[in-house]
Design brief:
The protein is globular and about 65 Å long. It has 494 residues and is α+β, with helices and mostly antiparallel strands. The longest helix has 22 residues, at 70-91. It is 25% helix and 24% strand. It is built from 13 helices and 22 strands. α1 runs parallel beside α8 and α6 (151-160) crosses α7 (162-168). The protein binds flavin-adenine dinucleotide and 2-acetamido-2-deoxy-beta-D-glucopyranose (2 copies). One 2-acetamido-2-deoxy-beta-D-glucopyranose is lined by residues 84, 87-88, 91, 107, 109-111. This is FAD dependent oxidoreductase.
Length: 494
């Protein structure tokens, strides 16, 4: 059992590592060190500066609507209060009280509204469930959700501000307006890089140590001794050749987690989301205004099921003039040899900054996104996409997080990952429940987050497709720069 004096090593300084170390140190754990191969003290989690974890990003959706999953809905509501208090503390700080990379006019959360859309006129089932769960369990928050095309709701929204009704109709071009959905005006976006900079600052204030950068912060492998059933994780070996000993190793390495813990390859899988950018020129202030978070919500559009499934969306413009669009209707794998376990092949992230770099995305998602964006915003066609990114998810077999002791290591090795595309919003609160699992204090997440592996014969969220599956990146066409351009007119749907 760990104690407040245990030496705790955390591999990974993304959302899972940051939130865990914050909650541990604030509750009295004195010896917590986070290792990350990225120099977050120099690149400030800004993806343009060479970091490529999922948390190092310009923005992420903050939503509380979670279908029937009341546990996550409640966690998001709790997170929201802390997000707002962080936002307030930053505004109330003098520049010298803030870490490098943050200034008092930075906000971590914009309540620009989170807009959920789907094809057709009938409210998509998931959205109906989200509204109903909110109505039954958090009615105050349900009052801030408004169904598109529902006259009463639109009147209610108009009373709050006509601006919100404009936001409700800003994406009317999608599917020629034959869409359904709702907007949640209590939700919006987090500025992801700034949020991580602030969380890391709070960690340091609480006494967490960070070892950042390659080679000193990069883990080559776990130190496991002796072999066999008595084995324990004794520490880590970093790329500079040094051994670091600890009482407990927590692996929060996001989509690289199975690269560090080979046993986790049937528990989590790295899959790539397709992210595209349009940089709006300065002289187009009309568009800067149109896509400003005051005038434009974050939105997500769903269509179809199964092989035909589309899910993708767009974010308001950043301070630098960048529009971000994502697609996750199909996520892609990249199977490679495992770095330490011979004979094992696992999906491994490949980004602009990995050894074998990549600067494009699969055509599959790109062509589908282009069609929706072109329908919605024909005025963007003249720019085309100006940049791209593969952003790596850590999918679990059921989209619940994975936060538990790894079996077979006598409680010396702990896995803390499985964000499955929805972990960011919980940055301020996640660690509270990670700490519960570490201390074996059961809570509502214990059954959801326990160690588990893919089961033969089940779909396992794609985890059992393996290298032969249809979404393996090495087998599908990748986009050329020419493909980033938009056609003259939106194409008909495939
Ligand atoms: C495309 C995309 C869109 C998303 N959108 C949203 C959203 O809108 N809202 C939301 O709530 N969530 C969203 N998510 C999910 C969210 O981003 C993740 O759940 C969360 O950021 C995962 O954090 P993490 O700490 O597990 O992983 P990461 O952020 O990837 O952190 C892992 C860290 O481990 C480090 N590391 C890896 N290997 C080593 C090693 N060998 N040695 C040292 N360090 C190592 C990496 O450098 C990295 O910093 C999205 C995810 C993706 C991919
Ligand atoms: C952390 O643990 C190490 C190894 O046991 C020890 O040398 C160090 O003094 C400890 N640091 C603190 C702050 O307790
Ligand atoms: C953030 O806090 C400041 C100061 O209280 C406030 O003016 C601003 O509206 C807040 N932002 C959000 C999104 O609530």
């Amino acid at each position: 059992m760990i104690s407040k004096d245990s030496k705790i090593i955390i591999v990974g300084g993304g959302v899972f590592g940051l939130s865990t170390s914050l909650w541990l140190s604030r509750s009295g754990y004195k010896n917590v060190t986070v290792y990350d191969r990225c120099s977050f003290d120099k690149n400030y989690y800004n993806p343009s500066n060479g970091c490529d974890g999922a948390s190092a990003d310009i923005n992420k959706v903050f939503r509380m609507a979670y279908g029937e999953e009341q546990e996550y809905q409640e966690l998001a509501i709790k997170a929201r209060d802390i997000w707002l208090s962080w936002n307030q503390s930053i505004e109330g700080s003098s520049p010298s009280d803030l870490p490098a990379g943050l200034s008092p006019d930075d906000k971590l959360l914009y309540l620009c509204g989170s807009y959920f859309l789907a094809e057709g006129s009938k409210l998509r089932e998931f959205y109906g469930q989200s509204l109903q769960t909110m109505q039954e369990t958090a009615p105050e928050y349900r009052k801030m959700q408004f169904v598109r095309g529902n006259q009463k709701d639109e009147e209610r929204l108009h009373k709050i501000s006509p601006k919100w009704v404009e936001k409700l109709h800003i994406v009317d071009g999608i599917n020629r307006g034959n869409i359904n959905g709702f907007i949640d005006i209590n939700a919006g976006i987090t500025i992801a890089d700034k949020a991580c900079v602030y969380a890391r600052f709070l960690c340091e204030k609480a006494g967490v140590k960070f070892v950042l950068g390659d080679p000193q912060g990069k883990i080559d492998r776990l130190i496991v001794e002796p072999s066999g059933s008595n084995k324990k994780a004794k520490g880590i070996k970093t790329a500079d050749g040094l051994n670091h000993w600890g009482d407990l190793v927590i692996v929060a390495a996001g989509s690289w987690t199975a690269s560090v813990i080979p046993e986790a390859h049937r528990t989590v899988e790295a899959t790539a989301g397709t992210v595209m950018f349009i940089d709006i020129p300065r002289h187009r202030q009309d568009l800067w205004k149109k896509f400003h978070p005051d005038n434009y919500p974050v939105w997500s559009y769903r269509r179809g099921e199964g092989d035909d499934y589309y899910q993708g969306g767009g974010f308001p413009i950043t301070k630098e003039g960048r529009l971000k669009f994502g697609y996750r209707g199909r996520k892609f794998t990249n199977f490679q040899d495992h770095p330490t376990k011979s004979g094992l092949r696992i999906s491994t992230p490949r980004t602009k900054y990995t050894e074998n770099p990549i600067d494009t995305v699969p055509m599959y998602g790109l062509s589908r996104m282009k069609r929706v964006i072109h329908e919605a915003f024909p005025e963007l066609a003249e720019f085309g996409f100006t940049d791209s990114r593969l952003c790596w998810y850590t999918d679990s077999i059921d989209n619940h997080f994975v936060v538990d002791y790894v079996p077979g290591y006598s409680d010396s090795l702990f896995i803390c990952t499985g964000g499955s595309g929805h972990g960011f919003k919980f940055l301020p609160i996640l660690g509270q429940h990670v700490k519960n699992q570490l201390e074996r204090v059961p809570d509502q997440f214990t059954p959801l987050w326990k160690w588990r592996a893919s089961v033969e014969g089940k779909s396992n969220n794609g985890l059992s497709e393996g290298e032969e599956g249809p979404r393996e990146m090495n087998k599908i066409p990748m986009a050329e720069r020419e493909d980033f351009k938009f056609e003259k007119r939106p194409l008909e749907r495939l």
